[in-house]
Amino acid sequence: MSVKRQIISWICLLGLGLLASFFLPPYFRYLLGLMAVYSLASIGMNFLTGYTEQISLGNAAFFGIGAYVFAVLQSLQINSVISIIAGAVLSGIIAFIVGFLTIRVKDIYLAVGTLILPLLLLQVTKGMDITGGTGGLSVFPLVEQENGSSLEVAIIIVITSIIGFVSSLIANSFIGRAFHATRLSEHGAVARGIHVVKYKVVAFVLSAILTSISGSLYGVVVGYITPELFQVMISVNFLIMAIVGGRGSITGSLLGSAFVVMIPALFNVIGLAQWQQLGLGIGMGVTLLLFPSGLVGILSLLVKRRRVAINESKPVASETN
Questions:
Q1: Cα distance between residue 37 and residue 216, in whole Å
Q2: Tally of CB atoms within 10 A around 216
Q3: SS3 of 225, please?
Q4: Which of 70, 151, 243, 255 is a plausible cystine mate for 295, CB 3.0–4.6 Å?
Q5: What stretch of H or E contains 143?
Q6: Quick one: which of 271, 257, 296 has its CA closest to 31?
Q7: CA nearest 37: which of 163, 145, 169?
Q8: How far, in Å, CA of 292 to CA of 90, rounded?
């Protein structure tokens, strides 16, 4: 996709998001905020899993780091933007160190290796006073007096759109092509002069930064954070978003986050809250069974059918004229 088309697509998506943030009822506005927040974490996981074929169960650590650094600095009257950046920088540094030490390990061994970090931070945050211990911390809004207000969600959507657009540029740049080459064949990538280890570490750091920003904004939407943010299931959810949405696709990351948020919410609305996880599992299984490429595959199919229908209608229109 050309840069011009990407700009148009993101502007349209931004416009729809802003309209929805001001006109949706409170509960659905809250869900919209969650989708925007999780989109960043999903994009981060996709850079790692979808683009460079690395499986990490440690992204919950960066999600929690972003949330806690933001909340702690905010309580010290530090500017919100600086607080978000501080969490992202800290996550990036930790990811660089962990990535450099574990990046040569592959597949399930990498997943298990990265699992240590969230488990460690889970215990650390529970035992520290500055993090509120097991009780957690309150997170104040960015500009409003209430978490999850229309303006708060609108600001989060703007931030998500900007970062999403930059991520799509990265995905279509030489960095993204290097990621893709690494995923297809490490030996082939080396033969083309690509430093595989370097780009794997870059993907890991980029994933950590995006996930940290997601964690900071999550605190803004929800208004309260606890050590449960470091639970391994958080990382699993990010992995589900990336795979179900579509590996190696920024659009797929957005669809995956919507899937993980809306399926449980749908069960909650119809009074079947106790079956949320079952519904999510069934939806994931059906989607991947019918469309191994994920939700983005469904979207691609619909776009192709629309183009075919338009092309077939053109001769009819000319005969009528």
A1: 9
A2: 32
A3: strand
A4: 255
A5: none
A6: 257
A7: 163
A8: 36
CA angle 4, 6, 9 (to 5 degrees): 110
E runs forming strands in 85-219: 137-138
Res 321: pLDDT: 45
Domain limits, the chain: 3-231
Average pLDDT score over residue span 192-199:
82
Task: Report the phi/psi class of residue 128: left, alpha or beta, with left for phi > 0 and alpha for psi in -120 to 50.
Answer: beta
Q: Is the distance from CB of 113 to CB of 218 less than 8 angstroms?
A: no
Q: What pLDDT does residue 315 have?
A: 60
Tens of pLDDT, residue by residue over 3-59, are 788 888 899 999 999 999 999 999 999 999 999 999 999 999 999 888 888 888 889
Dihedral (CA of 172, 178, 179, 183) sign: positive
Please choose, from the candidates 204, 214, 195, the residue with its C-alpha nearest in 3D space to the C-alpha of residue 97.
204
Q: 138 - beta bridge partners?
A: 224
CB of 210 closer than 8 Å to CB of 43: yes
> pLDDT tens, 117-129?
888 998 889 888 8
Per the structure block, which two tokens stand in for 294? 């994920």
Exposed e or buried b per residue across 18-42, where buried means at least 16 C-beta atoms within 10 angstroms of its C-beta: bebbeeeeeeebbbbbbbbbbbbbb
- Read off the DSSP letter of residue 50: I
DSSP category for residue 133: G
Paired tokens of 186: 């490490």
Say whether pLDDT at 208 is over 90.
yes
